[in-house]
Amino acid sequence: MGEWNSCHGAFTHSSQIRIFFERGVIYLMLIPSFEDEILDRTLSLFVNDIHAILNRKLQSVYLYGSALHNDLSPGYGDLDFLVLIGEDLNQNEIGLLNKLRAVYRSSPLRIWVGNQIHNLYTDMLEGAFFTVNMLNGGKGCGLWWGTVRESVWTENQLDLFTQYTIKEQSILLYGELQKDKIPSYSREELIIFLKEYATCMRTYGKGNSLHSVDWLLLASKFIAWWQEGNILSKSQAADWGYLHLSGGWKVNLKRCKKLRKDPSMVTLLEYSEWLSNLGPAIIEASHDLDRILETR
Hints:
This protein has helices spanning 37-54, 91-106, 132-135, 160-168, 187-204, 213-228, 234-244, 253-261, 269-276, 279-293, and strands spanning 16-22, 25-31, 58-64, 79-85, 110-113, 116-119, 125-131, 142-145, 150-153, 170-175. The protein is of the alpha+beta class.
């Protein structure tokens, strides 16, 4: 049982769900059934750890992003989540959550899988903790576990496409089913967001860093969604763009995918030189995105 399934998805219908009631509300606890046992263990640990901190405030835990497509990239990508809570966080809970994040990131948590020791993906966890009221535009006190640091949020700062993705393509790991409370956005509102992204590409899109490839991968992802209605992972977007796009910048997508899956290649002269010259391709991709958004 699951809220989303795809032929490319990691979540399977063989998962079992524990259903229980508390204060008249139906809650679910997922017994994980991902293809990746390390992912199973990571998510179970995460849910248990935050439940110990938040207790009855914890309402729902959603997973979205690359994990649902078997496209996790340790050393590069994130393990994306949204935690909905029943009340604003207090300073003690924020401190405990940030200490937990520090533990997750300071030293790898290791487990035995088969006859080998593997690192858990806890250092990849990234996402927001906030109330449904904040999710729908209200003020409050929440928390963001970001790539670089943790930040207290007093309002929802998730971008429109991320919220659209959570509503359309996420799975519930724990808690109350309440996707109906996640905001819906019109196609026109999403177009405005994508046009703003194209403008950001021209303003800030530079080469020279490992994550410069995200500009091209996301451009391909957004074009694929616009033309076919599918929300792809970044690796899937690279494959789709190479096959379907016509702009010259698409030739870079294969390398983008390789570098995302093996970030250590950034130290190779071939890749470092390529990254340093990626700027013109980013600009070209931004114009392609703008042009395609005007087609219908």
